[in-house]
Amino acid sequence: MKRCLAILAVLLCLLSSSPAYASASVDQLVVVEVASLSATTGTLEVLEKVDGVERVVVGPVPARLGRSGVKGDRREGDGTTPLGEMRIVGAFGLPASARVKLPYQRVRPGDCWISDVGDRAYNRRVRRARCDAPNEDLYRIARGGVYEFALTTSYNTSPIVVDKGSAIFIHVHSYDAAGRTKPTSGCISVSRGVMKRLFAILDPAKDPVLVVRLKQ
Fold it and tell me: What is the pTM of this model?
């Protein structure tokens, strides 16, 4: 019962929150909204505060979310995108150089993001001679297009809690054989063009924050 009440409190907070900023220092907000907890599609828009005035600088554009919808108490491998706020802290991708303001790391063979709950490097980017499932081979995925451009978030990083979920990014859509966008394993995906736009405008000096919430 206590757990249900805690989850309800989080959802009510997200439902009642305005599109305004999480703190006075935040001048960029990436808002992802979904219609229901089970939704795998939603919208993404970027709000920017200039001289105290809020304006929309991207979107709203279509976005894909986790194959199992969204959830306030995400767990590793459950296929949900976490509800709530998280900072956008960096970028990575395939180009040797990119038009980006956030700290950027080019992916190379051997780059691996650890999603194995039994690994001491859980939810960290490391170098490995082999990057076996359930860990994410960043270079292989980037070569396939999905991580050609990607943004990292602060989800479950301070502190890292084992089994709370790992590798929550914003990245390029994945497509099926018919050319339709696919849901993610928990990340948020948008078109390649939108990702390049996010790379260009998100600025660490503006403390960008990602908010995933139910549509009001």
Answer: 0.86
**What residues pair up with 112 in beta bridges, in sequence order?**
126, 137
Domain count of the fold of the chain: 1
Q: What is residue 199's three-state secondary structure? A: helix
How large is the C-alpha radius of gyration of the chain? 17
pLDDT in tens, 147-181: 999 999 999 999 999 999 999 999 999 999 999 99
What are the tens digits of pLDDT across the range 79-106? 999 999 999 999 999 999 889 999 999 9
> Which pairs from 1-7 meet CB under 8 Å and 24+ separation?
3/73, 7/72, 7/73
- 37 in the Ramachandran plot: left (φ > 0), alpha (ψ -120 to 50) or beta? alpha
User: CATH code at 170?
Assistant: 2.40.440.10
Domain that holds residue 12: 2-214
DSSP H or E stretch at residue 3: helix 2-16
